[in-house]
Structure formats: C-alpha cells, structure tokens
Design goal:
about 20% strand, three-stranded antiparallel beta sheet, elongated, about 40% helix, 434 Repressor (Amino-terminal Domain)
C-alpha cells in the first residue's frame, strides 16, 4: 500500500492528526506535536478510499496592479477632486489616500474595488495559478524542512 509522507518531517505517515489546529498526515515521531485523530489501521483504510485522480488545481487570485498609486492620483486629478474630497466620498482618512497615491501603502482588495468604482479605473487584476500535486518523496519541502531552514 502506498502511504502518504509526514507533512512535518517527510517520513512515512501512519497517522492523521491535528497539529496547531491543522489536520495533517504525521509519522509516529511527529504525533507528539499534536493530537492523533485516527489509528494506523483506520488511516490506511481511509487513504485507500479517499484516493482521487491527480490533476492540476487552478486557483484564481486577485492582485493589485503595481502602479496603483499613479492610477489613483491621475484619476482623482482628472475628476478635479482633492485628496480630502475623495477621502470623504470613500469614508476613509485623507492620510491613507495620500499613502496609497504615493505608493507607500497598497490598498486592500476591498478598498481597491471602492476606488475603482469611484474613479472608473482598474486596480485589481485576476491571476490564474495552476498547482500540481507532488507525490511523496518528490523532493517537496515539508513544514519541518521550512522550520529547520528558518531556525537553523
């Protein structure tokens, strides 16, 4: 039977557990970091039942354009609005609008959408990412590898 690898250290996982509030596959040694949900026998049966065909997963993410500050300033000036007037219209602080226009603060997606609507500009772009699942032992980093790099 093909077992999953431990999400913490990369060894053969024989347990399902909760570590820091996240359900993951863990080996016997890494069970000490959390709570075991299923015993080895039950876990092995579940793995077999849950096996799905592997295919790339698409994810659509929203990103703020790089020149957001210039776009906001240019559109605001084109509408002959001061920063104070636009800030009042959006119910935001004038200082925040100043920081956005200068590029020091990137607006949240929510605020960017409100700016888009008020100024009739495009600030949010959709980006598609394709994630392919890696098989165990394919050289993928585990959480344990990352922690070792960070603290090591």
């Amino acid at each position: 039977m093909n077992m999953a690898s431990c999400d913490l250290c990369g060894k053969e996982a024989k347990f399902k557990g909760i570590v820091e509030g996240v359900e993951m596959d863990v080996c016997k040694e890494c069970t000490k970091f959390g709570k075991v949900l299923r015993t080895p026998r039950v876990f092995a049966q579940k793995q077999k039942q849950e096996k799905k065909p592997e295919r790339p997963q698409k994810e659509i993410i929203e990103l703020i354009v790089e020149d957001f500050g210039e776009r906001v300033k240019r559109a605001r000036e084109h509408k002959s609005l001061t920063q104070e007037e636009l800030a009042k219209q959006l119910a935001e602080k004038e200082s925040l609008l100043h920081k956005i226009e200068s590029g020091r603060v990137e607006p949240s997606i929510h605020l960017a959408r409100r700016l888009e609507k008020a100024l009739h500009i495009k600030l949010v772009e959709q980006h598609e990412e394709i994630h392919e699942e890696k098989k165990a032992g394919s050289g993928a980093l585990t959480i344990g590898d990352i922690l070792k790099q960070k603290h090591g």
